[in-house]
């Protein structure tokens, strides 16, 4: 976390910045500042402090040869901590652009600085040393949503549970904060947000830089799942002007996976969250602009440059577009399913959800790989996992290694030919009724947590007639486009569509949203990366 650079490394950094002196007591980085320089201390000491009201917590001390900063330095978000000289000293100062130039050209320093930044962020998260306090309840779906949003954006926060801390409830009553206002988020120690939207949180914490709507981007990427982030890394590293739009948080479906074990290069597995966090930092390191909690609402495809419209009447102009909007879980048809979303019904199984149902019985619905993975993961902490599968077995839909783990795990009960028919409860799910089609019986179980992992539908509503889709709504590309598709789209170029190109020239589809895609992280990443070579070809036409 706090490496000491060699004199040769310090000299290489000095070539990118300027030497300056530091006065004792001087604040060289203020918490919350948007413009955050990078310092290598060459003499003296600098304390890293987390301010909270009138109190301060000492987080670290940098001495000669050590450097300031953490992940926000690369992502361009406001500083989380204050850095103050405890004695007179000297430092080399680089602004963000100079630091980006350094990490893009010097691979040894890039690895060293990136590793320290990521480890420092992990430490801040582990100790809840952020600038956010979340006050919520585990019986409130909004609390889970906000926790998920902060966690998936790698933002450290402290949590106060209203169900356990009665004093805080009194305080909220005194400020006329009602149950409908929960969760409450105290942002930067200054702003109190009542049941905020993800967009409000992103705004308050400065996740996004302002969008220049007059600029025409080389490529706008819609969706920051594995496919979109891979496209962003390749496009930005190859010098293109890139903007990424993401409705929610980076990571997409993969971000809701507890452990991805079949992605090349991670023999012990990696959580979707960790993979997404690294990919986001990597894309930012190469200069891609990534806008969080702001999705594409409409594609304007009848003129060039194309325009992507967003909330608040914002729009961005693009020479080429990569659609990487993936897919969302299809909800089974159970009448009151949506009422229990976040309070008993979940669409992802990560550490956060696992904590909510520790020691309890849970049900996982679905027979695919994601359902299998969720069952194996939850079985580590839950009392029992009922796996409800509509078909007569798992063999056709699940990888062999997962089937074996499920069969060998005494905490998992596989129930084939079984479907949920009713959910019951008040503010939280209390009971589940399911039908065993083979036995012809209906059973009721006191289960308070159901994980729905039942196949996905493509996120293509926002495209409204711009590109050819197949019957289920997935986007057709390259050789899959028939002569009729191209004629209907008035395909103008003399050439045939490139691989991954839709029926709209210069607009590509990658990952789960693309018809024929193999629904895996590796194929999403592969397609996102490959698409950039076609983007170059279209830009040069
Ligand atoms: C629980 C779970 C476990 C999994 N485990 C594995 C595994 O172990 N191994 C494996 O290979 N695969 C696994 N998968 C599958 C894998 O995660 C997907 O194949 C992969 O995430 C697809 O990537 P993608 O980028 O194409 O789409 P997605 O991951 O779906 O990402 C799409 C992104 O686009 C965003 N978006 C949607 N609409 C808009 C819009 N209008 N504007 C802006 N943004 C938008 C979404 O919010 C999302 O972030 C798992 C999936 C799940 C759900």
Any overview of this molecule?
With 541 residues, this protein is α/β, with parallel strands linked by helices. The protein contains 14 helices and 28 strands. The protein is globular and about 80 Å long. The mean pLDDT is 91. Bound molecules: flavin-adenine dinucleotide (FAD).
- End-to-end span in angstroms? 47 Å
Shape: globular
Q: Mean pLDDT, as a whole number?
A: 91
Kindly state the percentage of residues in helix. 25-40%
Structure summary, number of beta strands? 28
Count up the helices.
14
Which residues form runs of ≥5 with pLDDT under 50?
none
* Bound heterogens, unique: flavin-adenine dinucleotide
Describe the sheet with the most strands.
7 strands, mixed
Percent strand: 25-35%
Which secondary-structure class do the elements indicate? Answer: alpha/beta
Question: What is the C-alpha radius of gyration, as a whole number of Å?
Answer: 25 Å
Descriptive tags:
alpha/beta; binds flavin-adenine dinucleotide; 5-stranded parallel beta sheet
Topology overview:
Layout (H helix, E strand, L loop, with lengths): L6 H8 L3 E5 L4 E3 L8 E6 L2 E7 L2 E8 L8 H5 L6 E4 L3 E6 L1 H10 L1 H20 L5 E5 L4 H12 L5 E4 L4 H9 L9 E4 L3 E4 L3 H7 L11 E7 L3 H12 L4 E4 L26 H14 L3 E3 L4 E5 L5 E5 L4 E9 L3 E3 L15 E2 L4 H6 L4 E5 L3 H10 L5 E5 L11 H9 L3 E4 L2 E8 L3 E8 L4 E5 L4 E3 L3 E3 L24 H6 L18 E3 L11 H19 L2
Parallel strand pairs: 8-9, 12-13, 12-17, 13-14, 17-28, 19-26, 20-21, 20-26, 21-22
Antiparallel strand pairs: 1-7, 2-6, 3-7, 4-5, 4-6, 8-10, 10-11, 15-16, 16-17, 18-27, 23-24, 24-25
Helix pairs in contact: 3-4, 8-9, 8-14, 11-12
Bound molecules: flavin-adenine dinucleotide (FAD).
The site of flavin-adenine dinucleotide has 39 residues, from helix 8, helix 11 and helix 14.
């Amino acid at each position: 976390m706090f490496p000491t650079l060699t004199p040769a490394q310090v000299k290489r950094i000095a070539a990118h910045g300027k030497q300056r002196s530091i006065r004792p007591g001087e604040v060289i980085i203020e918490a919350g500042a948007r413009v955050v320089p990078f310092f290598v201390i060459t003499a003296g000491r600098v304390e890293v402090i987390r301010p909270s009201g009138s109190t301060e917590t000492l987080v670290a001390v940098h001495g000669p040869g050590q450097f300031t900063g953490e992940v926000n330095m690369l992502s361009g978000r406001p500083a989380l901590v204050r850095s103050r000289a405890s004695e007179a000293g000297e430092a080399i100062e680089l602004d963000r652009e100079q630091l980006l130039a350094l990490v893009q050209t010097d691979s040894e320093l890039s690895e060293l600085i990136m590793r320290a930044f990521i480890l420092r962020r992990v430490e801040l998260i582990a100790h809840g040393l952020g600038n956010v306090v979340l006050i919520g309840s585990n019986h409130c779906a909004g609390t889970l949503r906000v926790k998920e949003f902060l966690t998936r954006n790698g933002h450290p926060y402290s949590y106060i549970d209203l169900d356990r801390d009665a004093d805080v409830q009194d305080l909220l009553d005194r400020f006329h904060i009602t149950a409908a206002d929960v969760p409450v988020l105290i942002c930067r120690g200054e702003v109190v947000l009542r049941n905020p939207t993800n967009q409000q949180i992103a705004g308050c914490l400065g996740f996004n830089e302002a969008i220049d709507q007059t600029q025409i981007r080389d490529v706008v990427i819609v969706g920051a799942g594995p496919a979109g982030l891979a496209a962003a890394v390749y496009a930005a590293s190859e010098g293109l002007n890139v903007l990424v739009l993401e409705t929610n948080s980076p990571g997409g479906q993969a971000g809701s996976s507890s452990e991805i074990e079949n992605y090349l290069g991670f023999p012990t597995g990696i959580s979707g969250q960790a993979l997404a966090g690294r990919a986001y930092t990597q894309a930012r390191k190469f200069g891609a602009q990534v806008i969080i909690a702001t999705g594409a609402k409409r594609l304007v495809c009848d003129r060039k440059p194309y325009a992507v419209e967003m909330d608040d009447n914002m729009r961005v102009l693009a020479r080429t577009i990569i659609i990487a909007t993936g897919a969302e879980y299809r909800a089974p048809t159970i009448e009151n399913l949506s009422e229990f979303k976040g309070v008993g019904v979940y669409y992802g199984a990560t550490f956060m959800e696992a904590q909510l149902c520790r020691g309890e019985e849970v049900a996982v619905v679905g027979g695919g790989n994601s359902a299998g993975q969720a069952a194996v993961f939850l079985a580590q902490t839950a009392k029992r996992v009922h796996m409800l599968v509509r078909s007569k077995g798992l063999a056709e839909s699940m990888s062999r290694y997962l089937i074996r783990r499920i069969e060998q795990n005494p905490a998992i009960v596989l129930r084939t030919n079984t479907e949920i028919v009713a959910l019951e409860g008040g503010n939280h799910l209390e009971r589940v009724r399911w039908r065993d089609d083979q036995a012809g019986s209906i059973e009721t179980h006191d289960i308070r947590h159901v994980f729905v992992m039942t196949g996905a539908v493509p996120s293509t509503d926002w495209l409204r007639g711009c590109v050819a889709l197949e019957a289920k709504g997935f986007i057709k590309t390259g050789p899959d486009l028939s002569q009729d598709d191209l004629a209907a789209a008035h395909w103008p170029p003399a050439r045939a569509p490139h691989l991954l190109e839709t029926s709209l020239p210069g607009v590509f589809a990658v990952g789960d949203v693309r018809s024929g895609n193999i629904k895996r992280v590796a194929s999403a990443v592969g397609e996102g990366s490959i698409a950039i070579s076609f983007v170059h070809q279209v830009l040069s036409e």
